[in-house]
Design goal:
2 copies of one chain form a homodimer. Chain A is α+β, with helices and mostly antiparallel strands. Chain A is built from 6 helices and 5 strands. In chain A, helix 3 packs across helix 4. Chain A starts with a helix and ends in a 14-residue tail after the last strand. Chain A binds a DNA duplex through helix 1 and helix 4.
DNA sequence: GCTGAAATCACACATTA
DNA sequence: TAATGTGTGATTTCAGC
């Protein structure tokens, strides 16, 4: 009994080369049909479906989303914001994080080192929107020591595709 | 004749409230079935299909992709990199951009102001991978004046969902 | 917006390594 | 024993009206 559980969990955390190919293909285009994927990687449709399902349920695929072209979504203002805090203990960092993350304008939030404590990517409608954001997220927080904002003139690249090369388990 | 063309192009560049709801829903989850979307927004499945198709072909939806959880994709190192150039004329900026954008490790590239000329989000396997990237993208470029890298300790948020509020055309 | 055909998906079963 | 491949029914997609 114990052994089968162990064996199962072992298998569910291992990806072979085909899984990685599927993952990479879906990273590029998740709208492909199951059988298109299947014949591309020389497996049967049900097998392909099972594998993709395992990638989803196993947590490798966190979500499948539509990427909206910002150029078509009306005027938007994106900024890279560096935030430094006064106190940098774990609680203070977590408190800041939990306050900014739910904000709709905050697209990305990285806790970084060295340099500032956080780097945020924020998207608002215009400069007035940024001013409102700065007020509600930074100015009103006594623990925020310094804020530097760099405004995006052009987004030359935005890719969500993680490089999966080198993750291929050695075929055995 | 002319009028119908104008009317058509008018229609194809305008989104009503339902379109925006669909766009927002697909930004959150693109794996929803067409009829699930249809009944959610009280329209018929064919109508829903036509609208989504228009969003795709009209360019609002740039792509549909699977987002891979970095925590499940093995050890990865993400960095926020600020790059300042020596010469900042249009040609030099474009030249740098065209050189870094094709690199697989470069996830995002923003041309910004004020501060550095570019902010990049890069993802590599480990510190050795970063060193290799720095060499091939920055050190080897005589026009790169300064590079500051902040390494991500934690990615607290990564959302691809643009805020579409306020884009609703006034119903008329 | 509705109804049709066509394609796809999802499942149970038999098979093989 | 656990994965793969074949076949069936249900669902969905997509065309016409």
């Amino acid at each position: 009994m114990i052994y089968s559980i162990i064996t199962n969990s072992m298998k569910s955390i291992t990806l072979d080369e085909t899984d990685l190919h599927l993952l990479d293909a879906l990273q590029r285009d998740a709208s492909q049909s199951n059988q298109a994927l299947a014949e591309r990687f020389h497996i049967s449709p049900p097998t392909c479906l099972r594998r993709v399902r395992r990638l989803r349920e196993g947590g490798w695929i966190a979500a499948e989303v539509a990427l909206v072209d910002p150029a078509h979504a009306g005027p938007l203002l994106t900024a890279v914001v560096e935030v430094s805090l006064d106190r940098q203990d774990a609680d203070s960092l977590a408190a800041f994080e939990q306050r900014v993350v739910p904000d709709e304008a905050v697209q990305q939030c990285y806790r970084v080192s060295p340099g500032p404590d956080f780097v945020l990517i924020v998207t608002v409608g215009d400069m007035a929107g940024y001013q409102a954001l700065a007020q509600r997220l930074f100015t009103s927080d006594a623990n925020v020591r310094n804020v530097k904002a760099f405004f995006s003139l052009a987004r030359a690249k935005f890719s969500t595709r993680l490089p999966l090369a080198g993750l291929v388990a050695p075929p055995g």
